[in-house]
Amino acid sequence: MPTSRFLCGLVLIYILAGVAVAQSPASDEILANQNRTPAGKLENGVLTVHLEIRSGTWHAEADDGPPLYVQAFGEAGQPLSIPGPLLRVPEGTTLKVAIDNKYKKPATVFGLNTRPGDPKAGIAIPPGESRETTFVAGAPGTYYYWARTVSPEKAGEAYLADAQLNGAFIVDPPGDVPPDRVFVLNLMVTLADALHPRFETATINGKSYPHTEMVQYTEGETIRWRIINPTVSEHPMHLHGAFYKVLSLGDYESDTAYSEPDRQSVVTQNLMDGHTMMMEWAPGHEGRWLFHCHFHTHVSDSERVPVFMPAGKPDDQTLPTRQEEIAHSIGMMTMNDMFGLVLVTNVLPKPGETHAEAVPVRKIDLVIEPGTESGKRPTFSCAVREGRKLVASQDKSMGPPIVVIRGQPTEITVVNRLSLPTTIHWHGLELDAYYDGVVGGGTASRVTPSVAPGSSFAARFTPNRAGTFIYHTHAADADQLSGGIYGALIVLDPGEKYDPDHDKLLVVGARESGFFPKQLTLNGAAEPEPLLFHHGVKYHLRLINIAPDLAADFRLGSKDHPATWLALAKDGAILPPRLARSGEATLHFDSGEVYDFEFQPEAIAEIPLEVDNSFGEAKIISKIIVH
Ligand SMILES: [Cu+2]
Fold first, then answer.
1. Which residues line ion ligand 1, judged by CB < 5 Å?
2. Is the pTM of this model over 0.85?
């Protein structure tokens, strides 16, 4: 989601982006930088680096794919790279950095300074000139440096041809450092045309999925990633199939590392624009797992037709013509027809370890049908069927909650009664890759198919933690998400009862994709009914944001007098003590995020409930009537 200042500049961006992209082609090829090798020469506690700013030709997709003409950093005499050269030093190192501006316009370089510290005081370098700076690295952490030539100079405001003019700056603590990888996100506004079908080019370490690096690990291995977001937008970064611990959170100025009891476990961390994080996870299941931005617009291309992957082993598959065409045009097969901010981890099985699949003791059907609502956009109806019991969406464009029990092997059969293929992702569950709902994902021997029209797919899992999760379509087609193919997946502890009178779902959706939706929904309704609560009674609120592209501001109470609630969990994981506290009932949360709160209204009142998108473009106003 771009920040509000982005909106004002949007029209201008289209004009400028056209100019930026159509600049005279430079012969310099810009390479994608996997951030594996630090730049410069480290000797006697001093790192000497000589950087250059030039313009060049960048292939964010295939190496022979559509070119973009942008500015980038490189080491003097070396090829340019996106992101720029990795600066990585142990704490206490002095950095001696020379920068030549070989671009035709003035450049201002930021972030080459001691941390913590204010890197907003930039170094201005006229075209054709050089500057040198010497500083001590400072506190360990994940930082970055950047430069501006055409975008506004404020941090986090680059979206033109200088948006990739940045590089990671890592300060390691003394002693042995566990291995990690550094991933820099980039986002630039491009003019959608025949060559560049999207209006944004979103990359990880200089490549857009499916051309991002496929990283490989083994089941159970500890994985540490540093994620750097110098882009104009926040990105809710979602990991499939496992929780990750947030070891540190920071920005260009400072970094905060959390000790073990303070570390939060999430499946989606909303990485705000300009921010960085270090995450750690250990894959529990073999297969191909996604780590991606949960904004639909940053991982999809609406121009392209959803991939239809028939069931069967990869080598028996006959692909429909359109998919062959897409696969050919992008040079390889994408999982789930995704693009942009997607990283795939291929997890190899641990040698000698086999997982027996538990026999399900509970069988549930999730039946998906066309909706009854007539409007510009399609709506869908979901029904949950177990034995003779059937609960349907009714007039809501949201599925009913599916309630399952921790430790109980469960099978949910997705029955597709649409004329389109679909697929369901069990967001937050630690399950086998084959059942994760990512078409073309799964394992080497079992590739996840899409659920073809008129067919079904049985997903099996044994939930291993109680909490609030989501089931939602993972089809590339955003209409399925805006049309209501989603619902809450509630995992109870054995013996716990689901009591809808005191257990309240607040699921935020939007009737369209894109960052400027006209219509938000709450629990599938554009005009939600007030909620009825009793004073002095404790309620469990389960908040889910599953709109395709929504940075939401949620509030209970008025702006001046927000209500108070107690934070319980995030993404289904219990909060560390530093976060499990009571506070103002306001929350900024993005697509793919889930929160649990306890709320006890003390007196008879009408409490406003408001959800805003950050642009003030769309809003939901409802209330809780306390009696
Ligand atoms: Cu994003």
1. 235, 293, 295, 298
2. yes
